[in-house]
Amino acid sequence: MSDTHASNARPGMGEAGTTRTSHEHHELGFIRKYIFSTDHKVIGIQFMLLGLVFFVLGGLFAMAIRYQLAWPWESMPVIGDLLFPNTGQAITPEFYTMLFTMHGTIMIFFVIIPLLTGAFGNFLIPLMIGAPDMAFPKLNMFGFWAMIPAIFCVLMSFHQPGGGPAAGWTAYPTLSTIESAAPGSVSAQTWWLLALTWVGVSSMMGAVNYVTTIVKMRAPGMTMFRMPLTVWALWIAALLQLFALPVLTAASLMQVSDRVLHSGFFTPTNLVINQLNPEGAGAAAGGQPLLWQHLFWFYSHPAVYIMVVPAMGLASDILSVHARKPIFGYKPMVYSMSSIAGLGFIVWGHHMFASGMNPALGMTFMVATMMIALPSAIKVFNWLGTLWGARIQLTTPMLFILGFIAMFIIGGLSGIWMAATPVDIYIHDTYIIVAHFHYVVFAGSVFAIFAAIYHWFPKMFGRVMNETLGKIHFVGSFIFTNGVFYMMHQLGMAGLMRRTADPYDYETYAHLQPLNVFITISAFCLFVWQIFFVWNFFHSMFWGKRVGRNPWNACSLEWEAPSPPGHGNFDHALRVHRGPYEYASPDVEEDFFAQTREVESK
Amino acid sequence: MIMRITITLLMVALLVLGIVSWADYEFWLMAPSPSHYTWWWPEEMSTLGQRVDNLFWLILVMVTVMFVITMGALILAIWKFSAKREDKAVFIHGSHKLELLWTAIPAAMLLVIAFSQMSTFAAMQFDSSMQDEDGHDLPVLCEIWGSQFDWRFRYPGKDGRFGTNDDFESAYELVMPMRDTEKDQDKKMVVFLLRSRDVLHSFFVPHLRFKRDAVPGMTQRIWMAVDDEQMAEIMGGREDKTFDIICAELCGWGHYKMSGRVRVLPDAEYEAWVEEMTALQFGNS
Question: Fold for domain B43-81+96-285?
């Protein structure tokens, strides 16, 4: 920790005028300040707490899935009586279907996206570009509060007569559109679709705000190419949301219409379900199940990049700070993120190589998918370039970012098989896919989120998290993450399909149970290990060591503000003179050259 | 220092894990087990399977090279540059030459992969719509119907036409003729129609490296073929010569039990089976 910035006092800024201070605002009451707040920092923290709470719920679902796969239909010790009193303390096939449906839904729409764009998007964008708040603070508040109906709808969907949604997080028709096809999903699936729509509304409010704020509200001197890569990444992710979300919203309303009004967007004629012609459904009919898949993946593939591009941005910033070295290839990083976003719109078909889609179209998607591997590779090489010749500080955030890079390499490389169509036909929907996207989204994005929480915690609460506990948290998480997801590649090679409640009746899978037991035990350990994080997080929030404005000696603007920043963020006027990564600059004595620091020309 | 050693060890472990998973094919996981199944993929016996597996190996070699280089560089960088240094880090913002280098090389590798798979994909997807010398579509062996939660196979019977009264149905077991390797290539293909009665299913035969969704409202022409020599080599000494059909697309609560088996018979035995099924169809005839 530096001496110069250890205190929260304003650093000497010469005669630069102070126009806004946190104290000029009149004090708001508790409700306006912490609950119905228009302050981007409070909204960011609200999103973060929401995401972390749902992370626990989604994690519990994952544990139940793992239990079933290791010991199918066996009664659960201790908690079985409590959870499944009527079914012999064991998971039923219907319940298992709901488990993986809701695990996916919650992790994607209530954890990763709110944490990355909601929490860090809100908290960091104005601070990093030197703005007092978002462009539309009230819209921003609405963005958070639109999550409440989403939560209401998703919780309602658990409670419907017959059970929860049962069509997977991808909700493929006709399983999702015809009630009698999935007897449990009478109204649960409709609630589920409404939840998705509300999450979309929330994301849309956020995205409009981020794009406008970044374009219009940068501090003097903050050109686009002086913005930290986190801001670039969030900007690109917001653009992705702006262009892709309307399609998902339209599609889910079409599916609601198919379910409730018995229209036939996705429902073909002459279906026979349970020896019956389904009542209502098929009346209009003549629909196409593949249409949903196209619409769904047109949003959900860009959504994959909404979940990983901000993580790449966070990783770049944290890496540079703790390596004490400028990011290697700033512009190539920006261009590669942009091309990921651009190509991200024309690769959705790679989810559908086995779907019966026109194979000529498949060929086109294959080439585009191959090409999107390239910008990811460029980013990895640039991170390695940043580390080379650095002065690496192995702090907790840095450890998580190094873990992120290591595991993103695995997740990225395994994606190449999926792009190769003939191989993909075999591995499509097997555990190789499960391994791949968990390497990207869990070992990638979630590790980056952990790193970001450890890194920006001092800015959020004015206190640092405990380093020792943080390191223990990292080492265990890293080992168990690989224990869980690396082994899934092996399951997938043996051909094990995802979403199979009890695979061992198949001759092909009978021998895989011991491997699944190993994975399950690793997963339980991984889940329990997060206690170190939970304890550290809440303990440090109240009793952590107090720090000043800039505990990491970082260059970017958010560290100019007090920790935590007051309403209006900065207590002095800002002028930006250089890029955000001037570490180890020979022009100054210290090893960081803050963006706002003025020096007399030599 | 402890952290530096720990993280280096962790990364090395990851690197070793990566390489081991390649090596396991050769050493312990492929060791024959009583059930013939390993942690690697099931034996292939289709005429295209070898090409799919070869493509997998091509990518595995390329990916392993990239994995070792990048993970090696990461480990080396952590080890080398995380020592307590008094001086500043190197002040450098990038290198145009390096960027070009590490854009061009992966791009070339990806293009190699992209182009080397096209013919296999085309053969998989388009060959079922090929026509014979007289311009007729290739004959369809049977219709594959998916429904919650079983597979049914509807054969046209001896007249080779659907919708006549000698059609018969086989549940659970798909019986197909094994074609002689000596005959020419397109005669070896066995063509099916893939359909679904209710929701999406996916027809997956791991041994034949085949998977395709059965979509309600769509009839798809697909083909599979078993390589007789390959099959004789693998299945020759076994009592049960059938293998799994698996539903690979979520189709409801009973998805996990939607199974079937493939039985491949030499032409003569296949004809006999058709006779037998027809006899069953017409009772005493």
Answer: Immunoglobulin-like (2.60.40)
